[in-house]
Structure formats: C-alpha cells, structure tokens
Design a protein that fits this description.
This protein has six helices and 13 strands. α2 packs across α6 and α3 crosses α6. The longest helix is centred in the first third of the chain and has 14 residues. It is globular and about 55 Å long.
Length: about 220
Amino acid sequence: VQERVQARLEQPVAQLPVSLSCLHVRSAETNWGDFCTDAFRELTGADVAVMNGGGIRADLPAGTVRYGDVLKAFPFDNTLTVIEVSGQQILDALEWASRTLPRGNGGFLQVSGLCYELDVSVADGCVSDQYGMCIGIEGERRVRNVLVADVPIDPLRMYTLAGPNYTLLLHGDGMTAFTGSRLLKDEGKLADCLVRVLGAGVGTGYENPSGQGRIRIVGI
C-alpha cells in the first residue's frame, strides 16, 4: 500500500512556468491565491471565487509539479463547492475576513472575479460570540470599492460563489455570512480540482508573487 501511495504522490501532473507563493497569504494577495481562485471559477463557471489563506499551506515551485506537491499545499479534505449568495453576503464576508489586518488570519480571503480596497486605518467593527463566530458588523466598513467583473457590486443582486466548503458551508474561521445559502454544486476535493487545471497548463499573469492587484491595502 505504501508503495502504491508513494507512486501516486510522485506522479507528475504539470509543468509550472513560475513559482506560486503562499508567503503572506493570510494578510495579502498572492499569486497562489490568484491562481487557485481563478481555477475555481474556471472549473465551476462561478461569478466569484474565494479561498481562505490558511488553507494554502505551501508554495508550489516552478518546474515539474507532482501530485504530492499539490497535496502539501492543499492537505485538507475540503471540497470545491458553489453556492448562490447576495452581494451583501459577499461584502459581509470580506469585512469579516479582513478584520485583523494588518495582522493576518487564516480566514483572510484570496479572490477571483472581484477586486476591492481595504483601509486598515478604519477600526474593526466585526462582532463575534464566545465561540468566535461572526454575529454582526457595526460602524464604518474597512472594505470598500468592491467591483465584480469591473462593475460595482450590487448588494441586492444574487451571484454564484465558488470556494472551499470549509468557508462557504461549514463556518470555518467563524465565517457566518453565507449561512442558509443555496448549494448549487460540489466539484470534489480541492487538490484534485487544482490538478485538473494545472494539468491543462498555467497561463500568463502569475509572475508577480504579490498577485495582480485585486486587493489594495491602504491606511498602513
């Protein structure tokens, strides 16, 4: 059994032209975060995709990528799911995910399909219960100028959102913004989903370890 498992872990799955970095993935945009959320949207056709930074556990070096490398970066048994959410739910999720910055947290969201500005000089207005679950947001918001497909987000509009079930369905990192959302699909284990996209080839635009400017942090 160990021999079969080892052979699977060493199986090449892709050739990567650039290294994908998880440095600062809990507090800022990274090219690994950009790529994996882009992959989620490509696989599902969702309007927006997110990935909690704490779920990306290792860099993916340039060159030959093996299955074990992807599992090292995405070691958990989370699955890629798609739900239907309102623009307001997305806004609430981004606010909660950004509450500790500039100090990072595992629930910080890497994104695809949207961009936004985060002003860390604004006091955190998120309120949590004794279990660390979000129960409300008060006062001025830190997250602003949110665009979906280059258009200002509509709080009343419904969007399709792809991401790990840990964040979207299981309240991981205290995320409650998506409670009660309608589940549209489950694509399977995150690592296996990423292998499918990696195997098809990685396009351009991921050269900068700090990403493509989807998350602009100001007020530092």
